[in-house]
Amino acid sequence: MAPLRNSRAAALPAKLSRSWLLASAASESNFAPALASEADSVVFDIEDAVPAPSKAEARERVVEALSTGMTAWVRVNGIETDYWADDLAALSRAPGLRGVMLAMTEKPEQVTHTAMRLQAGTPVLALVESALGIENATAIASAPGTFRLAFGVGDFRRDTGASDDPMALAYARAKLVVASRVGQLPGPIDGPTVGALGEDLLEACKVTASMGMTGKLCLRPEAADTINKGLSPSESEIQWAHELLDAHASGAVVGDGSYLPRLARAQKISSLADSYGLWNA
């Protein structure tokens, strides 16, 4: 019998997912631990995680898993590769497919063409990994079929020669944030911080959150809970929101021109705290 998905994570809408765990499809043994983890969303990976000679086998492994009780997203190969069409043809028949992450997205029509080959309504998460993709981010975010944007940090750095310093990647992250807002999408998903756990990962999440990004990719199940904490409203933010909303409900007088923006922020924090189950955490 297929293992059940973490029930808390399964109930959370993907538009609010903070941690996105990439589980290599090179081995079926990676699937169950990923699905049982605290990751808000799980992505079976048949792209970077699988060498070319094993692509077909990995694809079949994923379709089998998604046809026998498992549910997950799948990272598919880029549209310019020889594998993209076969990936989508196979996944379009998989009942447990939650959505696809399109690798190497550089143009808006790539998302639309991908969506058209899947069951109607299947969300496509555009993974932007190059200079061209970043410059086209606004058009990609507005393309029919685009559900959310994600940042492929490693490939972007290889493409541009940028370091992993937050300042070196600030433009790309900001571009994805602004593009997501223009396209009326949820906040974008930051790339993984490879090898980081604990405090180091929390520090990386501070950079992610400070840029306006609301999710983060990860490669290890144990990283998911840290990311969830790092990208959730803090205890002090929740307390502030609670106090402001209570005062507003009791008829507090608007104090200045910043009141309505602060009220909107408090309402957003309150909504997220409810969604993430944080009020009594």
From TrEMBL:
Keywords: Lyase, Magnesium, Metal-binding, Signal
Residue numbers binding substrate: R75, E129
Keyword field contains Lyase: yes
One GO molecular-function entry: magnesium ion binding
Cofactor: Mg(2+)
Protein residues bound to Mg(2+): E129, D155
Domain spans labelled HpcH/HpaI aldolase/citrate lyase: 21-185
Key word Metal-binding present: yes
GO biological process: oxaloacetate metabolic process
Signal peptide region: 1-25
Name of this chain's protein: Citrate lyase subunit beta / citryl-CoA lyase
Taxonomic placement: Bacteria, Bacillati, Actinomycetota, Actinomycetes, Micrococcales
